[in-house]
Design a protein that fits this description.
Length: 76
């Protein structure tokens, strides 16, 4: 079952080249992840992007976690 948090991630063909964005804004999931990866704190991100909510950051992380998952094949 999909997490309700993932409803915050939107994909629109004409926006940001169809990249996953946060709640329809022109802020990509990858932008949020890059900020976190560079060491920005949640508080710093929220200060720089006042339209964001902390749940948006968690949604970006959850989306990334799902995207990096892969099936595990077990030999019979």
């Amino acid at each position: 079952m999909a997490s309700p948090r993932l409803e915050r991630i939107t994909i629109e063909p004409g926006k940001c080249g169809g990249s996953p964005c946060i709640r329809g804004y022109r802020l990509r999931v990858s932008d949020v992840l890059a900020l976190l990866g560079s060491g920005a704190t949640h508080a710093e991100i929220l200060e720089d992007y006042p339209f964001l909510e902390e749940e948006d950051i968690f949604a970006a992380l959850e989306y990334a976690a799902i995207q990096t998952g892969h099936p595990i094949l077990i030999a019979a």
